């Protein structure tokens, strides 16, 4: 299992490859008692995070491309991007564009709705050497248009001195804040910015921003 998303009705979506003995990229919906109530089966052998859109489709990071799939297991569109390797997370922005982290490609890319590249930022040639872009993983879009992301550095202990592991980029793609603490962490893969969120409510990113859903 590579992704899990709580639903407003208390159900949970889980996704992964060959889940529950089913071949392919599988998205299962489980009720509050973990009973399967829906499944979508897509061809493929790789998926990382999935995110739902506001029209009920799934954005699925599938190694060297991002795909959008329907609840009945059909790929509606897919956009390969040069440099993607284990692409990690994608969101649809309020303007209809997509924003995606490239995994081991170690950059962020914004795509038009037709898949053409708007901009790429955060790559090795665009940031100070001490950042050491290695694997751009989970990120969160903030209300001011900034992006906070995790710059994962490797499996296991001993990576606390390697790179700067939390980065905030402004809308120009410049780093405006960063954090790393070698004596506290080895490597960060996930990030969730709680500032401004009502933690008593379920939030999701179906419109790009982390917002309450009901």
Give a short synopsis of this structure.
0% of the residues lie in helices and 42% in strands. The chain is mainly beta and 214 residues long. The two termini are 25 Å apart.
- What shape does the CA trace take? globular
As residue ranges, the low-confidence spans are none
Q: Determine the N-to-C terminus distance.
A: 25 Å
Counting helices, strands and paired strands, the structural category is: mainly beta
Rg over CA atoms, rounded to whole Å, is: 17 Å
Examine the coordinates and then state which fold CATH places here, giving the name of the CATH topology of one domain.
Neuraminidase
- Mean pLDDT rating: 97
Q: Output the strand order for the largest sheet.
A: 1-2-3-4
Tell me which CATH architecture of one domain applies here.
6 Propeller
Task: Write down how many β-strands occur, each being a DSSP E stretch of 2 or more residues.
Answer: 18
Plain-language structure description:
The chain is mainly beta and 214 residues long. The protein has a domain at 81-212: TolB, C-terminal domain (Neuraminidase, 6 Propeller). 0% of the residues lie in helices and 42% in strands. It is built from no helices and 18 strands. It has strands at residues 3-6, 12-17, 25-30, 36-42, 50-52, 58-61, 65-69, 75-80, 89-92, 98-101, 108-111, 117-121, 135-141, 147-152, 166-169, 175-179, 203-207, 209-212. The chain has a four-stranded antiparallel beta sheet with strand order 1-2-3-4, with no helix packed on it. Strand 10 (98-101) and strand 11 (108-111) form a beta hairpin. The two termini are 25 Å apart. The model has no long low-confidence stretch (mean pLDDT 97).
């Amino acid at each position: 299992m590579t992704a899990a998303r709580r639903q407003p009705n208390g159900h949970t979506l889980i996704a992964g490859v060959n889940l529950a003995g089913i071949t392919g990229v599988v998205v299962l919906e489980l009720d509050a008692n973990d009973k399967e109530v829906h499944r979508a089966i897509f061809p493929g052998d790789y998926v990382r995070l999935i995110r739902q859109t506001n029209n009920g489709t799934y954005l699925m990071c599938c190694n060297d491309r991002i795909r959008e799939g329907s609840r009945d297991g059909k790929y509606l569109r897919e956009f390969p991007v040069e440099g993607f390797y284990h692409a990690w997370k994608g969101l649809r922005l309020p303007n209809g564009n997509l924003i995606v982290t490239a995994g081991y490609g170690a950059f962020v890319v914004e795509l038009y709705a037709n898949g053409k590249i708007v901009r790429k930022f955060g790559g090795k040639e665009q940031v100070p050497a001490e950042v050491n872009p290695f694997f751009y993983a989970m990120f969160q879009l903030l209300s001011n248009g900034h992006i906070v992301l995790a710059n994962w550095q490797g499996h296991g202990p001993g990576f606390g001195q390697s790179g700067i592991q939390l980065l905030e980029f402004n809308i120009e793609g410049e780093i405006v804040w960063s954090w790393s603490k070698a004596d506290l962490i080895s490597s960060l893969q996930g990030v969730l910015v709680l500032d401004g969120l009502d933690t008593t409510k379920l939030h999701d990113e179906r419109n790009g921003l982390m917002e309450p859903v009901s």
